[in-house]
Amino acid sequence: MATAIEEGQAYREAMLLAAAEAANAPEEGAEPTTDEEAADRFSLTTVTLAELENMMTPTTPTQEGPALPAVTVELIRNLREQTGAGISDCKRALEDNDGDLNKAVESLRQKGFEQAARRSDRETSQGLVEAYIHTGGRVGALVQLGCETDFVARTEEFRVLAHDIAMQVAAMSPVYLSEEDIEAGDERPAAQVCLLQQPYIKDGSRTLADLVRETAAQTGENVRVVHFSRLALGE
């Protein structure tokens, strides 16, 4: 079991990383215009240890000894793996939720959804076309997924999303992209015929719209399904 000193040192390392990330964060409302600028949002700034030390607020000792924070490096790591959020955002979410991992996850996802909504009118001229052919070659799907920069289009998160959506199209045969596209007189439920409203085939507690918003939150860009198509032998 880690000693109090070891836990305190580990926490301090995480705080130094968070301070470095915060120092490199873009100004509120700033938008990337090039791949290089987009890449900057995923990297930590290069600063000296002394500069990082100056960014930190030391823990106030008590009569019983140094006060240990409830937020640990392991919690920050777990939260970042689950949400893809930055170190400083993970630290803040855990602090705001008294170290409760589940509440911090929900808090970050909600924050990401709100940010994604504000970015929804940005142009998505970049992206990729993903193809999925089911085993046996009898069913296939094409999906065009859009984003703002070529940098994000090359990230693993974006590629995984495109692949998962193509699999969803092949497996669930959606007719429309969203509820707004349902034709008059079609009374079938949106969860059945609309791609974005369908439950995700790998996790029924989430919809395809949730997946798109989560990826938008992780990448910091507007992400949207532009077009999809499904082909099957005999149909």
Automatic annotation (TrEMBL):
<dbReference type="GO" id="GO:0003746">
    <property type="term" value="F:translation elongation factor activity"/>
</dbReference>
<dbReference type="InterPro" id="IPR014039">
    <property type="entry name" value="Transl_elong_EFTs/EF1B_dimer"/>
</dbReference>
<dbReference type="InterPro" id="IPR009060">
    <property type="entry name" value="UBA-like_sf"/>
</dbReference>
<comment type="function">
    <text>Associates with the EF-Tu.GDP complex and induces the exchange of GDP to GTP. It remains bound to the aminoacyl-tRNA.EF-Tu.GTP complex up to the GTP hydrolysis stage on the ribosome.</text>
</comment>
<dbReference type="InterPro" id="IPR001816">
    <property type="entry name" value="Transl_elong_EFTs/EF1B"/>
</dbReference>
<dbReference type="GO" id="GO:0005739">
    <property type="term" value="C:mitochondrion"/>
</dbReference>
<dbReference type="InterPro" id="IPR018101">
    <property type="entry name" value="Transl_elong_Ts_CS"/>
</dbReference>
<protein>
    <recommendedName>
        <fullName>Elongation factor Ts, mitochondrial</fullName>
    </recommendedName>
</protein>
<keyword id="KW-0496">Mitochondrion</keyword>
<dbReference type="InterPro" id="IPR036402">
    <property type="entry name" value="EF-Ts_dimer_sf"/>
</dbReference>
<keyword id="KW-0251">Elongation factor</keyword>
<feature type="domain" description="Translation elongation factor EFTs/EF1B dimerisation">
    <location>
        <begin position="117"/>
        <end position="184"/>
    </location>
</feature>
<dbReference type="Pfam" id="PF00889">
    <property type="entry name" value="EF_TS"/>
</dbReference>
<comment type="similarity">
    <text>Belongs to the EF-Ts family.</text>
</comment>
<keyword id="KW-0648">Protein biosynthesis</keyword>
